[in-house]
Amino acid sequence: MRSVPRVNQIVSDMAEIDLERVLCSLAELTAEGCREFTIGTGNWPLRGLVVQTSAGVVAAYVNRCPHAGHGLNLRPHKFLTPDGSLIVCSSHGAVFEKATGVCVAGPCVGQGLLPVPVTVADGYVLLAADVDPSILVAD
Fold first, then answer.
1. Residue 1 within a domain
2. Domain assignment of residue 89, yes or no
3. 92 located within any domain
4. Which of these, 41, 57, 94, 117, could form a disulfide with 53 (CB 3.0-4.6 Å)?
5. Measured between alpha carbons, how far is residue 83 from residues 51, 58, 59, 79, 119 in Å?
6. pTM to 2 decimal places
7. 8 Å CB contact between 24 and 124
8. What confidence tens digit (pLDDT) does each residue in 51-89 have?
9. Measured between alpha carbons, how far is residue 139 from residues 47, 92, 113, 115, 120 in Å?
C-alpha cells in the first residue's frame, strides 16, 4: 500500500526552497520550451533564460548575446528557433546549442552564452545555492 504524505511533510519540503531563487517550474518549461527569468531589482537585475533539451537536460544562461552584448529576445520567452531545437538571437541571427550555449552559426561562432548554474528540486528550476546573481550581471 502506497503511503500518502502528510500535509506537514509537504509544507516542510516546500519551506526548504528559497523562493527568491526559483526561476520557473518544470511544467512551465515543458509547455513553453523556454522561460525567461529576472532575479533582483533595480537597474541591473540578472536576466536570463532556462531551456530544456530533448534529452531532458535543464540549462540556463544569461540573456546576453556575446556578439552584440544585448538581450537575445524581442518578445517575452521567445528564444528558440521555430523547431525549438536551438536558441536564436533575434537581432543578428546567432544560433546557440541549448545544452552548451555555444554559438554554432552567425556572427559569433565559437563563442558562448554565459551559463547560469541551476538545480532542479521538487519540480522547480532554481538558481544554484552557491551562485551570487550580482557576479553574473557584472560578467
1. no
2. yes
3. yes
4. 57
5. 14, 18, 18, 11, 26
6. 0.83
7. yes
8. 998 888 899 999 999 988 889 998 888 999 999 999 999
9. 12, 21, 11, 11, 24
Q: What is the DSSP string of 40-99?
A: S-SSS-EEEEEEE-TT--EEEEES--TTTSS-S-SSTT--B-TTSSEEE-TTT--EEETT
For residue range 107-119, list pLDDT tens digits in order: 999 999 999 999 9
Phi, psi of 92, deg, nearest 5: -120, 5
Q: Read off the CATH number of the domain in which 124 is found.
A: 2.102.10.10
- Let me know: does 76 contact 47? Beta carbons within 8 Å: no
Distance of CA 91 to the CA centre of its chain: 20
Contact 40, 134 (CB under 8 A): yes
The one-letter amino acid code at 43 reads N
Question: Considering the domain boundaries, does residue 2 fall inside one?
Answer: no
Please state the domain count of the chain: 1
Segments forming the whole domain that contains residue 82: 7-138
